[in-house]
């Protein structure tokens, strides 16, 4: 169907796709903004095309420029990576209309699962447990009160088109619900051009567990176990691991079967992730589906000894993917740390700048997914993640020990990073024991959930904030949007 792939992304995921394409014998095209002229994905692709100035809205989010680059280079397919246009149904539709294969699900599948209310309804029909809440949009504050009274407080308001914690408010009583309703709606309108909200009961002290799934065009569906993504700050994932220390074999089987039922409901094509909240009694509830490759996919690849990106491309080529579900079991314990260019001592403020020197760890069972190097200047226009450190070992305890030593060996000079913060987590007895949930950073490490007053006062932001916010969803945190002050 195609022999050349354009990667409509940047950074480590662009490199990851280039490597997968090479192994499949496919040529690659890198697109880049003027800020990424010296990026490694530009150097290692077979061809490269500059698509515009640094702001994402004028480069990585510009349909016309990306499609033009594909046509000029005769690329038969586009891989969107994660973030940017990966879950943009309109872009997938444009690719289709231009005769270019979009390496991902079909536009209708992206739309169905991108609308949180529609997705919840579909999962109900598939027999997947969902969190008690509104049957659809809560159009008015009065509607919200009625639902909250029915399911019981605390409740959470969520944007129908949401992601990254935007348009999301926890309400513990009616007064708080009244204060939050209009704020959340306005936030959702600004971030996603859609003010609609829905309401759910809050699952207290949950684990955030996601199931990796894969579907091909021949009716085959598989799941590759769970990833525990509960170590988060402001709804942004920092550390992920598989298998989860909280999930036993029976719950893994039940969640996997539920995820496959959900994927079958929309006849899903490609790789995707069905995300659940799991309560203290291990009851699990559908939260959302991500219709793309995830940032944290490497731990599944390492633990299950698969190549999800190659499988994703093979599905787009129309190939039949043949696994035996009963044989898909975790062979290793794997953990990932997201290394961000952020100043932890200054409320995780993004820290663009030049990397003076870098030394990465190595050895058996150590993987580094990165696209930075000594002398590289981290631009202020994009996400602050600069690397992913992944380890695997025979047991979780061995993986934690290995990760601790790798963090000691991981040296980045010239900019602050989150490496010291990860060291603190991996030395904490509760994390080592697996006693954590999504509130671990706030309740155990006492990391502030809310922005500081100084941050709240910075309301004048570059236009790229909205662009990134709309397109990159849960992989981009609010503090990683660039302010004018940051740029100067």
Account of the 3D structure:
The protein folds into three domains: 4-103, Rossmann fold, CATH 3.40.50.20; 132-201, Dna Ligase, domain 1, CATH 3.30.1490; 207-472, D-amino Acid Aminotransferase, Chain A, domain 1. It has an eight-stranded antiparallel sheet, sandwiched between helices. The chain starts with a strand and ends with a helix. Residues 450-488 have low confidence and may be disordered. It is built from 18 helices and 22 strands. The radius of gyration is 21 Å and the shape is globular. Helix content is 34%, strand content 24%. A hairpin with a 2-residue loop joins strand 10 (221-233) and strand 11. It has helices spanning 11-23, 40-44, 63-72, 89-97, 107-114, 116-125, 141-151, 174-192, 249-265, 297-304, 308-316, 396-409, 419-426, 429-432, 440-443, 453-456, 464-472, 484-487, and strands at 4-7, 27-33, 47-52, 77-79, 101-102, 155-159, 169-171, 197-201, 207-215, 221-233, 236-242, 270-278, 284-290, 333-340, 342-343, 349-350, 353-354, 357-359, 366-370, 377-378, 385-393, 411-413.
User: Number of domains in the coordinates?
Assistant: 3
Rounded to an integer, what's the Rg over CA atoms?
21 Å
CATH homology superfamily of the largest domain: ATP-grasp fold, B domain
The CATH architecture of the largest domain can be given as 2-Layer Sandwich
Helix amount: 25-40%
Beta-strand percent range: 15-25%
Structural class: alpha+beta
Oligomer: single chain
Output mean pLDDT: 91
Write the layout of secondary structure elements.
Layout: E1 4-7, H1 11-23, E2 27-33, H2 40-44, E3 47-52, H3 63-72, E4 77-79, H4 89-97, E5 101-102, H5 107-114, H6 116-125, H7 141-151, E6 155-159, E7 169-171, H8 174-192, E8 197-201, E9 207-215, E10 221-233, E11 236-242, H9 249-265, E12 270-278, E13 284-290, H10 297-304, H11 308-316, E14 333-340, E15 342-343, E16 349-350, E17 353-354, E18 357-359, E19 366-370, E20 377-378, E21 385-393, H12 396-409, E22 411-413, H13 419-426, H14 429-432, H15 440-443, H16 453-456, H17 464-472, H18 484-487
Parallel strand pairs: 1-2, 1-4, 2-3, 4-5
Antiparallel strand pairs: 6-7, 6-8, 9-10, 9-12, 10-11, 11-14, 12-13, 14-21, 15-16, 17-20, 18-22, 19-21
Helix pairs in contact: 4-5, 7-8, 12-13
């Amino acid at each position: 169907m195609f022999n050349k792939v354009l990667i409509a992304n940047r950074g480590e995921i662009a490199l990851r796709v280039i490597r997968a394409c090479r192994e499949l014998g496919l040529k690659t095209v890198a697109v880049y903004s003027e800020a990424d002229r010296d990026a490694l994905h530009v150097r290692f692709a077979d061809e490269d095309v500059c698509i515009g100035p640094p702001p994402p809205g004028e480069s990585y989010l510009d349909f016309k420029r990306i499609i033009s680059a594909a046509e000029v280079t005769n690329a038969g397919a586009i891989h969107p990576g994660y973030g940017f246009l990966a879950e943009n149904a309109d872009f997938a539709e444009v690719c289709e209309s231009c005769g270019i294969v979009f390496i991902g699900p079909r536009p209708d599948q992206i739309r169905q699962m991108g609308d949180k209310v529609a997705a919840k309804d579909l999962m109900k029909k598939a027999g997947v447990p969902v969190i008690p809440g509104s049957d659809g949009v809560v159009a008015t504050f009065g509607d919200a009160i009625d639902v909250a009274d029915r399911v019981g407080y605390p409740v959470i308001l969520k944007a129908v088109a949401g992601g990254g914690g935007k348009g999301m408010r926890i309400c513990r009583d009616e007064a708080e619900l009244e204060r939050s309703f209009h704020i959340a709606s306005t936030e959702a309108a600004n971030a996603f051009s859609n003010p609609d909200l829905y309401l759910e009961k809050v699952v207290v002290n949950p684990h955030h567990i996601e199931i990796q799934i894969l579907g091909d065009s021949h009716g085959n569906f598989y799941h590759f176990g769970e990833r525990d993504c509960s170590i988060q700050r402001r709804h942004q994932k920092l550390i992920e691991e598989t298998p989860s220390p909280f999930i036993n074999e029976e719950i893994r089987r039940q969640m996997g079967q539920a995820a496959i039922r959900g994927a079958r409901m929309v006849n899903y094509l490609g790789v995707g992730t069905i995300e659940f909240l799991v309560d203290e009694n291990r009851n699990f509830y559908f939260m959302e589906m991500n219709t793309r490759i995830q940032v944290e996919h490497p731990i599944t690849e390492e633990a299950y000894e698969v190549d999800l990106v190659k499988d994703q491309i093979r599905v787009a080529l129309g190939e039949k993917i043949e696994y035996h579900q009963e044989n898909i079991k975790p062979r290793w314990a794997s953990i990932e740390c997201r290394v961000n260019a952020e100043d932890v001592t200054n409320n995780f403020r993004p820290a663009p700048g030049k990397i003076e020197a870098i030394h990465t760890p190595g050895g058996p069972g150590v993987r580094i997914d990165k696209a930075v190097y000594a002398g590289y200047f981290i631009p202020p226009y994009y996400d602050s993640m600069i690397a992913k450190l992944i380890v695997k070992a025979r047991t979780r305890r061995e993986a934690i020990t290995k990760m601790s030593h790798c963090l000691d060996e991981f040296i980045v000079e010239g900019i602050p990073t989150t490496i010291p913060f990860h060291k603190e987590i991996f030395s904490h007895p509760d994390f080592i024991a697996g006693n954590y949930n999504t509130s671990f950073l706030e309740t155990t490490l006492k990391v502030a959930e809310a922005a500081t007053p100084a941050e709240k006062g910075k309301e004048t932001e570059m236009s790229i904030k909205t662009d990134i916010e709309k397109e990159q969803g849960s992989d981009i945190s609010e503090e990683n949007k660039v302010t004018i002050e940051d740029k100067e």
